[in-house]
Fold:
Amino acid sequence: MTEVDDPHSDALVIFGATGDLAYKQIFPALYGLVRDEGLAVPIIGVAKQGWSLDQFKARAHDSLDKHGGAADADALGRLMNQLRYVDGDYNDGETFAALRRELGGSQRPLHYLAIPPSLFGVVAGALAQSGCAQHGRLVIEKPFGHNAQSAHELDAILDQHFAEANIFRIDHYLGKEPVQNILYTRFANPLFEPLWNRLYVRSIQITMAEDFGVQDRGRFYDETGAMRDVVQNHLLQVLAHLTMDPPSGDDHESTRDQRAEVLKSVRPLDAAHVVRGQYVGYRAVPGVRPNSTVETFVAVKLAIDNWRWSGVPIYIRAGKALPLTAAEVIVEFKRPPRETFGEHVPTSSSHMRLRIGPDVAIGLGVRVKTPGERMVGHDVELILTERPGSDLPPYQRLLGDAMRGIRDLFTRQDLVDAQWRIVNDVLDNVTPLHTYEQGTWGPAEAAELIGADGPWYDPKPGNA
Structure:
């Protein structure tokens, strides 16, 4: 195993290049990198599809027609000229010998594995044996294991062939502009940092809602569930951005060090602090077992055992077939110890709202006086910013960073370990499964979980 000295990869290899992820996300990202950043290296697709290079290019064309909006003919032409293709089985050494030949003079390839995690070890070993791993980087997609033990086993396999500094674990949520905006808003504005602790914050809520079901992902989802699909990774990373201490330096590791530190302080979940739900009709989805007990909704209560956040309850919920699609954070501040005007003040009058998607917004909940002689007021929200979702796709940012060796937006093994430690004891059927109707905010038991710390703040359409 050799660490990459030169920060720039000189080739990009995509395993699973004919799959759904490449079709919907990777080709548009590559087009953006060619158009915006002048990416000019061989791009080699690898798959077992029985295709020719022309068929592979046709797939890329179709992807961009449907998902990329490739309006720049020059950039599109350059991308097509950079594409190469190797067809073969991942268990066949000749596939990797052909890849080595296709790489030609490239010595620092970036290998992107858009394939099932069960094949990670097979491909990593074959890359090493064929000489394609030396001075190379490896990008892998979540899930990084199925539980804490399998995550350790996967890490041990990858470490045999690639140095940790050359392994880039993608969590595409970290590439989203609104998630990056959480860090920037916190640490660029001196107004917020003095209030961002247990003395002033009453609670934190994170909601990730989708108004659609599992669609054609029934088989995958029935092996995964909401806890593994989004809580263990995406939403715990959002929590880390919200609660971490400021980075102590400008190097690649400073931000990841602070994210790891706070996640290691999160108390592991137990059954009393988890509510699981499944929407009515889920079991009829193709690929789903008729008696499935996999959750399509989960709500959890977390605690951080450190000086900054001790005693502050943190609630996360995520689900399919909810009333709308949105991801939102609410940081609720404590009310003053005495209400000067003797009003009954609702809890919605003192918060910061960070909208992550599909649009972007930051709002502050405040109370203002109602016109008239009486000293009474009403709640309003001051909108600090609002705009459509970012035009820069997360995969364009992440693949570009990986090519340059910039690791800030990728998760590290100790971060993966910390995230699995938090959820490991409540995976699968440890807690009861409650049903809920499609188009509702999940089972009623979620309201019981939040109790007096509630109510849940339900995201509204748009930035409302």
Observations:
- The CA atoms of residues 324 and 460 lie 8 Å apart.
- The chain is about 35% helix and 20% strand.
- The first strand starts at residue 11 and ends at 15.
